[in-house]
Amino acid sequence: MEGTQMKTADILIVNGDVFTGDRRKPHYRPGAVAIKDSIIVGVGHESEMLSSYQASRKIDAGGALVHPGLIETHLHMTGMAYHGAPFSPQTGAKTKLNYTSLKAATNPTITAAYSAAAACSVLQRGFTLFFEPGTVFETDAFAESMTKCGVRAMVSAPNGWDDLSTYEEYWPHMVSEEVKKRAPADARRVIDQCKREIARNKDENALVRGYVCLYGEGTATDDLTREAVKLATESNVVFWQHQSFVPEFVREEKKKRGDSGAVRMHRLGALNPNTTLAHMNVLDEEDIELILLNKPGLSWCPNNALGYRVTPPHKCWFPYLYKNGVSVSLGVDTTLIHPIGIAGLLGLYLSASFGERLNDADPFYMQTIDAANNVGLGDKLGSLTVGKRADVVIREARDITHLSWRDDTGILLSLSSSMIPVDTVIIDGRIVMEKGRLTTMDQDAILAEAIRQRDLLANRLST
Ligand SMILES: [Zn+2]
């Protein structure tokens, strides 16, 4: 086969240990991936791919792991940004400088600086989509920074709520006067802002997309929840919210709204595959039955379940639900205390400690194809499949972690837990990281600016 019969590609990745994220064709070793424009045009055994494709650029993966970009389905920008800020997450509202005061004191310059640093950080761990669950005030600055760095993100209205009575009673440190001033408990404000974010999706190539987000945990009335769900359906985007994190929220939601969790979501028409509920730690048999029947996406945060000790007597249902066809993805929620990627390993151990161990490969799929489904982009992202957008990660070739595993599931576990350094990242067909360094922007300058803005903010709040 020569010349005219060859198909053309922009990039051909060869000599890869390719895990596709597609359970029907999971693995090629040595494998190759062909990319043209922003799309994956070929995936397969290296020899077949080499005889089929002529590429303007060939990347030799050197035997390294090649996989679809991981998708983090619950990561607050503010938690991401305050690494190294001079306060402890445990100090609450006792000091002037705390998590809530920092969250409310941002401006476009600060958010732009943090977002760029966050973009570098997610890439270095093999993640290509940053799902911000409705806590960024300056959404344009966030979107602009992510786009400049070449990283995908999803963004929505900040603090989508219209009734704060439960929070004010139980977690007052989370709703300071400043936060309420910037994000009033007002249904109109929330819906209008969601619409504004969803307008980003008019450009089908936009790296940053909008969706519908409510804060959740009983902070939205039935009316707001119904309207938000309707907007998500009409706009063809996911509806996402925090739900059933700790027992007191479930109890209070039941007291105020008459029901809670999956039962309430079902009553409000929200329990379907277009909805993703984050946490879902405290569930009873009725919730489980409804989830199995209606298949909403679940965004599991095992590190926070462990951190807040939402463990027995509350059963960890995720392995059971996952084995029975529910789409479960992972998120670290607040990276101030939990680094990105840790959810894979902790999810596995948490499941094992509850008597129903996940398969070692499950966290990989939870962070690729299941995650893509849970953010509403399962047809475009989440696996190395012909026709999908080209978001591809190549790990370092000579890392001992890769060599030490004897089977594929072990490799997938270390891969999905960010144990193996990242070399190259391609997003939408564009190389955005090479040799572990950002290609789109000056990474050192980004980090220096993020530190400078963090310190300026801390000084301003302390005085
Ligand atoms: Zn959260």
What secondary-structure arrangement, pairings included, does this model have?
Blueprint: E1 7-19, E2 27-36, E3 39-45, H1 46-52, E4 53-60, E5 65-68, E6 70-72, H2 77-81, H3 99-104, H4 108-124, E7 127-131, H5 139-149, E8 152-155, H6 165-170, H7 177-182, H8 187-198, E9 208-210, E10 212-216, H9 222-235, E11 239-243, H10 247-257, H11 261-267, E12 275-279, H12 285-294, E13 297-300, H13 302-307, H14 318-323, E14 328-330, H15 342-353, H16 362-366, H17 369-374, E15 392-395, H18 400-404, H19 408-416, E16 422-427, E17 430-434, E18 437-438, H20 443-462
Bound molecules: zinc ion.
Assembly level? single chain
Classified in CATH, the superfamily of the largest domain is: Metal-dependent hydrolases
- The total count of strands amounts to 18
Distance between the termini: 72 Å
**Helical proportion?**
25-40%
CATH topology of the largest domain: TIM Barrel
